[in-house]
Design brief:
The chain has 124 residues and is mainly alpha-helical. It has 2 domains: 86 residues, no CATH class; 38 residues. The protein is rod-shaped and about 85 Å long. The mean pLDDT is 94.
Length: 124
């Protein structure tokens, strides 16, 4: 059996962690996991589903007794350790560098096409 207050405080801590690390907002934890989507690995998504189901079951005191504390603790541990390893600044840098890299590659292709066209027309 789990302690409901402790469970809700862990869910709140997980929600703030998702907000700070991934920038995901939502009315509930399950909505936040859905918005995070493919940014999280399958293993973490599955742990998120376990926590979300537990959150819905914890609303009813009789159903809250059915929750497995070992499974919940493992799910919380998986999700928090994964989210703590995420560096939001590095994620933003990677996104910007990826966009810039794509733009530079397209510019190189454009310049190569222009040079090939000029060579074909005997301008060069």
């Amino acid at each position: 059996m789990i302690e409901i207050e402790k469970f809700h405080s862990r869910v709140a801590a997980l929600e703030t962690l998702m907000q700070t690390k991934l920038g995901v907002r939502g009315p509930s934890l399950s909505a936040r996991f859905k918005r995070a989507g493919r940014r999280l690995p399958k293993r973490i998504q599955k742990a998120g589903r376990v926590i979300s189901e537990a959150q819905t079951l914890s609303a009813n005191p009789k159903l809250a007794r059915l929750l497995d504390p070992k499974r919940l603790n493992a799910a919380f541990a998986d999700v928090t350790t994964h989210l703590e390893t995420i560096d939001p600044v590095d994620r933003r840098k990677g996104l910007v560098l990826g966009v810039l890299g794509g733009m530079v590659f397209n510019l190189i292709l454009l310049i190569a096409a222009i040079l090939a066209l000029l060579y074909w027309q005997d301008v060069i």
